[in-house]
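Please decode residue identities from the backbone states below.
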């Protein structure tokens, strides 16, 4: 990138999982990922948007060999996805398991959560509110953040507002992301899921149990 000092810092990101409800800000991120040869896998809706923007992507259902469940109830909850995040190719046992089961390491997870807080703030029905309680997204975020702390390979981004920071790190580190940055993002990820769980718990207490605020 012209005008930016670059340096090498760790292994480059080679494969990213992107699955977002909020599609804004994707184009500059995709442009950067393509520049550094990052392969992208994505869920159906996000994959469609990525293709619309002119970038290559493999759908999760194609990668796993398992179709998405109607209504988006089951998309990413598959061993090939979670083992790709949690597995450490530097561990011989993990590497053997991943090779035997055709599992590719996933180095970057870019994911937001269903807009639960926004949905329930506009007096949505209980059915709509419950449908917007994310399951797979929370599991992916927590897995990626845990992997960061376990072996430092995975980076996790949970908000489109963090895309500029991700792009900046990729640019100045020639496609890699420093460990201290990954750990900071992991902390932000755990804060995000914690807040999400608190808000969904308050909502269910109020709407289902008839208590709470």
């Amino acid at each position: 990138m012209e005008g930016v000092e670059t340096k090498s810092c760790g292994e480059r990101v080679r494969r990213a999982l992107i699955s977002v409800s909020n599609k804004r800000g994707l184009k500059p991120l995709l442009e950067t990922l393509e520049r550094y040869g990052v392969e992208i896998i994505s869920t159906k809706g996000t994959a469609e948007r990525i293709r619309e923007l002119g970038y290559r992507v493999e759908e999760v259902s194609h990668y796993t060999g398992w179709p998405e469940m109607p209504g988006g109830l089951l998309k990413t909850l598959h061993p090939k996805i979670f083992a790709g995040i949690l597995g450490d190719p530097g561990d011989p046992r993990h590497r053997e398991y991943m090779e035997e089961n055709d599992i590719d390491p996933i180095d970057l997870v870019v994911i937001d959560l269903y807009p639960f807080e926004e949905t329930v703030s506009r007096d949505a029905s209980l059915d709509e509110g419950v449908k917007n309680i994310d399951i797979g997204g929370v599991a992916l975020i927590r897995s990626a953040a845990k992997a960061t702390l376990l072996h430092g390979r995975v980076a996790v981004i949970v908000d489109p507002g963090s895309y500029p920071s991700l792009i900046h790190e990729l640019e100045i580190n020639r496609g890699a992301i420093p460990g201290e940055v990954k750990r900071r993002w992991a902390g932000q990820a755990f804060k995000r899921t914690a807040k999400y769980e608190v808000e969904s718990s308050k909502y269910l207490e109020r709407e289902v149990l008839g208590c709470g605020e």
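Observation: The domain at 15-207 is CATH 3.40.50.1380 (Rossmann fold).
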